[in-house]
Structures are given as structure tokens and as C-alpha cells.
Amino acid sequence: MDAFAASVTAVKERLAKLNPGPAGPLPLLIGGAGRRRTLELVAREADWWNWYGWASEDPVADFRELSGVLDQWCERVGRDPGQVARTVMVNPDQLPLVEGFAEAGAVHVVLSLPAPYDLRKAEELLKVRAALTS
């Protein structure tokens, strides 16, 4: 087991020892795009997977492809791929892609705002969400 996988195990063991324990289950989110190690670990351990595609030429297509790789890992480890929620972190320039991410399976969007914080971008994201959920 590598150091990262050992860390996940240590966190889970520590959470199990809390007294009192958490009020409810604490979801484990693992972010990354490593096809062999990271997505395998996500398939085995995580409740949520987060991806960001700031350097990608086609972020939605890459998210969709990596989500498919995660599905394959889930099948290999005997887990229903639907048990892993897909999330994506976007920068303000990627707001026009949010609908595509949703269509590709993202159920949560994290907006990364650089300082100084322009909250108009957050308002724009809220409008996109409203349009997608209406």
C-alpha cells in the first residue's frame, strides 16, 4: 500500500474511533486525474471524485473520459459506479462549460475564484444552476 492509500486508511480508522462519532457519515472526496493510481483509489475508497481541467483543451470531453475510466475501476473492484458522485472544479472562464459537465455526470460544481473575489461569477453560476434544475 502506498503512502496515500495508507493515509486514507488512517483517516477512516481515526473517524471510527471518534467519541462521540460524527452526526452522520462523512463523505470522502478524492480529487485527481491519475488513471492508474488515483482513480483506482477513488473506486475503492471515495464517496466523491473531484476533477479540474484548467489545463485541458477540451475539459468536458476529458471529464467524461476520466469518468468512464473511473467506472471501469469501479467495476474491477466490484463497486457500483453510481456510488461515486462526480464533482468538478471550474475557474470563472469555464462557467459556460457547466451545463456540459452536468450532462457528463457532474453532480457538484466548485467555483474557484481568484483574489480579488468577483462574486458576480458566483451569481452567474447560480443562474446556470437554476436553469439546469428548473
Q: Care to describe what's here?
A:
The protein has 134 residues and is of the alpha/beta class. The chain has one domain (3-133): TIM Barrel (Alpha-Beta Barrel), CATH 3.20.20.30. 46% of the residues lie in helices and 15% in strands. The chain contains 5 helices and 4 strands, in the order αβαβαβαβα. Helix 2 (38-45) crosses helix 3. The chain is globular. The mean pLDDT is 91. GO terms for molecular function: oxidoreductase activity, acting on paired donors, with incorporation or reduction of molecular oxygen. This is Luciferase-like domain-containing protein. InterPro entries: Luciferase-like_sf.
Short characterization:
This protein has a four-stranded parallel β-sheet with strand order 1-2-3-4. Helices cover 46% and strands 15% of the residues.
How do the strands and helices of this protein lay out in sequence?
Elements: H1 3-17, E1 29-31, H2 38-45, E2 48-52, H3 59-76, E3 85-90, H4 98-103, E4 106-111, H5 119-133
Parallel strand pairs: 1-2, 2-3, 3-4
Helix pairs in contact: 2-3
GO molecular function: oxidoreductase activity, acting on paired donors, with incorporation or reduction of molecular oxygen
InterPro entries: Luciferase-like_sf
Protein name: Luciferase-like domain-containing protein
